Q: What sequence folds into this?
């Protein structure tokens, strides 16, 4: 057994202390009831496997199997793996919205890592919010950390066509509302869509965040796209288990890998993959934990010259399975590297640079991963809009929007709450046509705790029946990464804190100019000021518990909607302990 003076890793404070024999007895002794042999307590690296497995998070339902592969890799490298569960925020089940619990889960992750005897941690993440919550929590502790994503589901297939998670649902829902398909058709499509383990297989938030993990350098190359059921997913998990033990020995902590440069790389990759708007909020929150200054201006700056090359739904045609077979994120990174658009010396978890990992990647299908010169959309990235409605910014994803609406002035049709929206949107007497702009208020971080994914408002039935499938929609909400349309989101400050979005009234004209990043309410500033003074936001009923903590402390969308007291790196030292 290692002597105190030979202690190399933090877990030895628990398991190998000669000066605190009673503590050691308790920490080590109780672990023995699981049958761990004595030599595993000899001071070797202890690796936590942070698992978001839950049967209520179907996208992560296979994570016990992935954890087994990680465990085998850790053992092979001479480490001692210990799996532990954390709060699993399920996008498809949790109400009112999984995003409400991202920060709660991140607290769980942070405290579980810091409080337990581990020297390095493997993060198992998949469904939308599980990835940022684990990265945020781990960032605040800053141990050697490696990410392993669960991988996407296989392609959905329905009546001879591929059917993508989420994206297919929005289309089918519009068709159902327009009377084009029946309820039976709708259910049959549902059954055909989710046919294997894994997360949404469109370039929604889950696959986007998997790609962000890879482009931040936080996973082994190729992590994002391998399907959940592909044997290579399990081989990658195994290799990640092996690698984390080496990372502990090298003291390669998260802050040595994730820097401002890696965030800039990730933003550029997000543009090239046509990634989810949710990445804006999540990267801001992760950066906040790492004490790295990342703002909407960085999205503006880094988004320039980045075309969307990946032809995946919701922006394009294919799905993640096709993306993997075409070469995945490494090809996208390679194509950006070749144009000199990425910081090529950004370090990754395998100890190599992003350039060394990806520059030799091969593309096997140029229709799935298009070239820089012949992209899916020239203007990729996330567009930031500012103006008198959104002094702190709002965002739009051009690759999912309609070109004819990128410069448009229209009459506002306003909904004060999502409930009002649902009551009125299909009312035949609603004064609306396709040239109007739908405005939804009080769905921001505080207004609808968690900032619901309701920004991609369904269009009024009378507009849908004309065959129209897109209108400009403005809100302080988010939208699902699988959604599409000319949808302006994350308007900050939100209406619930009397941001100027609150001042918009029915009949006002709004002008949107995406190219020039402008969004203006064509009403005098005096009128806006007067309206805001008199405005009574529709506030949620929050009586206590975590929701109260959330509403009292959540920051605005442009700051990542983290809780204000969670920002920052608090490190891995536990100052006091007792037995
Ligand atoms: Fe879990 Fe889409 S619902 S990834």
A:
């Amino acid at each position: 057994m290692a002597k105190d003076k030979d202690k190399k890793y933090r877990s030895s404070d628990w398991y190998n202390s000669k000066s605190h024999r009673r503590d050691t007895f308790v920490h080590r002794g109780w672990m023995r009831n699981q049958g761990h042999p004595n030599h595993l307590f000899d001071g070797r690296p202890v690796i936590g496997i942070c698992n978001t497995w839950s049967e209520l998070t179907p996208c992560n339902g296979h994570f016990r199997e992935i954890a087994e592969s990680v465990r085998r890799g850790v053992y092979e490298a001479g480490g001692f793996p210990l799996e532990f569960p954390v709060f699993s925020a399920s996008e498809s089940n949790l109400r009112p919205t999984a995003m409400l619990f991202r920060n709660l889960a991140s607290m769980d992750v942070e405290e579980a890592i810091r409080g337990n005897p581990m020297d390095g941690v493997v993060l198992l993440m998949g469904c939308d919010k599980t990835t940022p919550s684990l990265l945020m929590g781990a960032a605040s502790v800053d141990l050697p950390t490696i990410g392993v994503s669960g991988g996407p589901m296989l392609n959905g297939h329905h009546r001879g066509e591929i059917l993508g998670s989420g994206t297919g649902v929005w289309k089918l829902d519009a068709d159902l509302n327009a009377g084009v398909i029946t309820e039976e058709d709708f259910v049959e499509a549902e059954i055909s869509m989710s046919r294997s383990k894994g997360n949404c297989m469109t370039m929604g938030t889950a696959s986007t965040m998997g790609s962000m993990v890879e482009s931040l350098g936080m996973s082994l190359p190729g992590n994002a796209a391998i399907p959940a059921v592909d044997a290579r997913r399990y081989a990658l998990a195994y290799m990640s288990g092996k690698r984390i033990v080496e990372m502990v020995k090298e003291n390669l902590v998260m802050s040595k890998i994730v820097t401002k440069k890696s965030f800039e790389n990730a933003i550029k990759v997000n543009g090239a993959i046509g990634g989810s708007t949710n990445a804006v909020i999540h990267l801001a929150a992760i950066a906040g934990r790492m004490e790295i200054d990342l703002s909407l201006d960085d999205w503006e700056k880094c988004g320039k010259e980045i075309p969307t090359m990946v032809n995946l739904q919701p922006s394009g045609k294919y799905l993640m399975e096709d993306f993997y077979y075409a070469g995945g994120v490494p090809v996208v990174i390679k194509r950006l590297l070749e144009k000199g658009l990425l910081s090529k010396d950004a370090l990754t978890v395998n100890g190599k640079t992003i350039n060394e990992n990806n520059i030799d990647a091969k593309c096997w299908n140029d229709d799935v991963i298009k070239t820089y010169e012949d992209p899916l959309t020239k203007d990729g990235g996330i567009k930031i809009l500012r103006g008198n409605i959104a002094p702190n910014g709002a965002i739009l994803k051009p690759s999912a929007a309609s070109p004819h609406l990128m410069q448009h002035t229209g009459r506002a049709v306003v909904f004060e709450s999502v409930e009002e929206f649902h009551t009125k949107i299909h009312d035949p007497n609603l004064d609306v046509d396709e040239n109007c702009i739908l405005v939804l208020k009080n769905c921001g971080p505080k207004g609808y705790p968690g900032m619901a994914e309701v920004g991609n408002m369904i269009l009024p039935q009378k507009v849908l029946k004309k065959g129209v499938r897109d209108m400009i929609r403005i809100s302080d909400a988010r939208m699902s990464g699988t959604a599409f349309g000319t949808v302006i989101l994350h308007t900050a400050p939100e209406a619930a804190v009397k941001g100027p979005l609150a001042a918009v009234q029915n009949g006002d004209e709004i002008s949107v100019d995406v190219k020039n990043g402008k969004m203006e309410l064509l009403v005098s500033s005096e009128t806006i000021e007067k309206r805001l003074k008199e405005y009574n936001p529709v506030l949620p009923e929050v009586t206590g518990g975590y929701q109260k903590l959330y509403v009292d402390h959540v920051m605005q969308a442009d700051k990542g909607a983290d809780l204000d007291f969670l920002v920052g790196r608090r490190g891995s030292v536990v100052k006091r302990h007792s037995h």
Summary: The pocket of FE2/S2 (inorganic) cluster is lined by residues 59, 91-92, 127-128, 165, 199-200, 204, 206 (CB under 6 Å). The longest strand covers residues 407-415.
